[in-house]
Amino acid sequence: MPAAFALLAALALAQAAAPPPPPTDSFQPDPAWKPLDKDAKDIWFDPIGKRVVLRARVALQDGVLEHLLCRKGTKEHESVLATEAPPRLIHAGLLLTGATPGHPVRFDPKFEPPAGSAIAIDLEWEQGGVKKHADARDWVKDQASGQSLSRDWVFAGSELFPDPRTKAMIYAADDGDLFTVANFPASILDLPFRSSANDAERSYLAHPDRVPPRGTPVTISLKPRPVADRPPPR
Q1: Which of 197, 220, 228 is nearest to 27 (CA)?
Q2: Alpha carbons 173 and 189: distance in angstroms, whole number
Q3: Are strands 189-190 and 118-127 parallel, antiparallel or unpaired?
Q4: I need a surface site. Which of 30, 89, 185, 209 has the fewest CB within 10 A?
């Protein structure tokens, strides 16, 4: 009997130490989708659905957020998702959908919230061999109320400015601020109200019971939200 128990214990430890199986991912881009650049990864324009399609992976399942989506290799410690899609092509794709960029957050001489077309963000992934869907707002919750994010992101459009040395034009979102839940002048998509990035004031969390495990591949769909379907202002 002791030997049998020892064998069972060894098997249990081996199973506990084994890495989890990789997430299932049967994604294939639709042949009708158009690559926005022949060398770019993880981004297409769907001319039939008038939407941008991005590929990303879950970077953070539980924790305080500054981003819904960041550029891979930049701010994964505070972003639900990370993508290799080039930020400039995300901007270009949104223009193809008919979305209109407004402006990023402004702090001087007075605060002005980000503005631009409201963008619907839909998510699709596989879990246990089953395809699942979610509105991206349901992956973000208000720390104070515990409720899901109630407003859409808007197409703020980031900033373009010349490098003081080379004079080449710099697109600010290249540093990683793609879709944010804290106001950044570099954001492509931002929330249309004041949302601080200060540690003591950050108010949004990932929804751990809704966000799938870290590393899960996710397909992101972006398109302008019809005016009639937009949630009321907060």
Answers
A1: 220
A2: 10
A3: unpaired
A4: 209
Please, is 149 exposed, middle or buried when counting C-beta atoms within 10 Å of its C-beta (0-12, 13-18, 19+)?
buried
SS3 173: helix
pTM: 0.86
pLDDT in tens, 98-157: 999 999 999 989 999 999 999 999 999 999 889 999 999 999 999 888 999 999 999 999
Q: Which residue range(s) make up the domain with 68? A: 25-228
In a domain, 5, yes or no: no
Question: How many domains in the chain?
Answer: 1
- The span from the CA of 138 to the CA of 143, in Å, is 13
Residue 215, helix vs strand vs coil = coil
Please say if the pLDDT value at position 230 is more than 90: no
